[in-house]
Amino acid sequence: TQPKTISDLYAKYMAKEPITMITAYDFITASWAQEANCDVILVGDSLAMCALGYESTTEIGLDEFRYHVQAVCRSRGPAFVMVDMPFGTFESSIEKGVETAISLMKCSPRVGGVKIEVGTPQGDSCEQDYSLKLATELCSRGIPVMGHIGLTPQRMHALSGFKVQGSKSAKDAVGIYRTAQNLQDAGCFSVLLECVPHKVSNFIAEKLHIPTIGIGAGAGVSGQVLVQSDVLGMMPGKVPKLAQKFGDLHAQSVGMIQQYTNDVTAQSFPNNDKNGFKIKEDIWYEFL
Ligand code: KIV
Ligand code: NA
Asked: Which mutation among 40, 46, 104 tests ligand 1's pocket best, with the greatest number of atoms within 8 A of CB?
């Protein structure tokens, strides 16, 4: 199967068919998403917390991230592959940001674009967000960009925690809408809305003429994205309100590993007939 292109995603958008997107961090989880026919695989920087055990997405470096992008890109199937721009790899200058985006695109010919977290100017500020400028520069260089707005985890401290965005005042809601429009004007092929009231995201989805992908943005956007470890229930405990567990892979995995270690302890695994190998009888006599 040939991977989907941006035109294929636009065709779904025009037909008002929801676009499906999920994260993957390695070859196996990417292959699962491919087999399930997901439209888009995102190598998200949630990798840091959901697969590598870091406390924050701000801790992961570019080399570490590229290693996982390459593994995901070894999967085969219909998905269009998007990758995050990790924290600290693009903020110091536009030049550095462009270099980082190129190095991510060069991980594999399968990488179709980059996603950048973009801030909404606070209060009365009319200052343009740096990431918006970078998005403009990347688009002008032919690198497809998805702008990520609303709750932007890399800016967790600037936002004073993981909170719904655009829910407190009309000004905040308008700010998010304006940022979405600016990203569209910058040439972004899509906008991702995280943790935004659905009235606000519906409004944005109606006004924009590019696909809007939501996580915690309600059902009125053009597509949905979730973190695969949330979907599969890979970790114990609850998932955030914006996500949903569709199973309990954590319990299943621990149970299966326990079954294996119990069988080893009880000496019922391995079974010489089922799992073992035989030596030719005549060789065995010679050996003796
Ligand atoms: O890193 C990530 O997984 C993301 C999605 C939650 C959108 O950015
Ligand atoms: Na991310």
From this structure: 46
Render pLDDT for 144-201 as a digit per residue (tens, 0 to 9): 999 999 999 999 999 989 999 999 999 999 999 999 999 999 999 999 999 999 999 9
Q: Are 217 and 195 in contact (CB under 8 A)?
A: yes
Strand, coil or helix: 20: strand
Which 8-state DSSP code applies to residue 224?
Answer: E
Return the half-sphere exposure (C-beta side, CA atoms, 13 A cut-off) of residue 31. Answer: 6
Residue labelled with tokens 């179709």: 112
What ipTM is given for this predicted complex? Answer: 0.99
Question: What sign does the CA torsion over 156, 160, 161, 165 have?
Answer: negative
48 close to 60: Cβ distance less than 8 angstroms: yes
Do 83 and 6 form a contact (C-beta atoms < 8 A)? no
d(C-alpha 188, C-alpha 271), whole Å: 58
Q: Cβ < 6 Å from ligand 1: which residues?
A: 23, 42, 44-46, 84, 192, 194, 215, 225, 227
| Residue 86: cis peptide before it, omega within 30 degrees of 0 | no
Helix (H) or strand (E) holding 150: strand 145-150
Question: Coil, helix or strand for 43?
Answer: strand
Residue type, 250: H
Sequence spans of domains, the chain? 6-247, 253-287
Active-site residue identified among 194, 206, 281, 286: 194
Q: Which CATH architecture has domain 6-247?
A: Alpha-Beta Barrel (3.20)
